[in-house]
Amino acid sequence: MAEVRKSAKQTAARQRAREKAAEFREKHDTLEQLATDYFEVADSIDDVEAKVAKEIAAARDRADKLITQGRAKSDAVIAKMLDLGTPRDEVAGRLGISTRDVKRNTPNPKAAATASQETPAPSPEGPDETGDARTDVTMSA
After folding, report:
1. Average pLDDT score over residue span 6-27
2. What is the pLDDT of residues 42-76, one digit of tens each?
3. Would you state the pLDDT for residue 5?
4. Residues ≥6 apart with Cβ < 8 Å to 91
5. Is 53 among the domain residues?
6. Nearest-CA neighbor of 82 among 94, 72, 67, 70?
7. Which DSSP string corresponds to 3-53?
8. What is the pTM of this model?
9. What is the CA radius of gyration of the chain?
10. Domain encompassing residue 48
11. CA distance readout (Å), 109 to 28, 92, 114, 115
12. Would you say residue 88 lies in a domain?
């Protein structure tokens, strides 16, 4: 009879061990699934961050281009006002900017002269098919 008790104790112990092992496996499976979910979300976050970074870079490029165009137009307006013989002080007063800004935004006459010497003058006919204002010189044989 002693063996029967021992066998009953062993059976009960094995049963408890199996239950604990099943609980451990279930918890392990749950933890593994949660870790998988975490890594999927982390990867999607990285993808979103990369996409947003590209969009921000593109927006900054567009903004830089628009700002450059706007500054060129405002500089052209200042230059036209000065070309009409308006003093810098008056241009600054009319535009609500400092005289220093008027001086800074006007092209340097020396730089403009060298730039015009380097760039060929546009042809009277207008731009050719390539969009270039220069006329092509053809050589005859």
Report:
1. 91
2. 999 999 999 999 999 999 999 999 999 999 999 99
3. 64
4. 78, 81, 82, 102
5. yes
6. 94
7. HHHHHHHHHHHHHHHHHHHHHHHHHHHHHHHHHHHHHHHHHHHHHHHHHHH
8. 0.49
9. 40
10. 25-107
11. 79, 19, 9, 10
12. yes
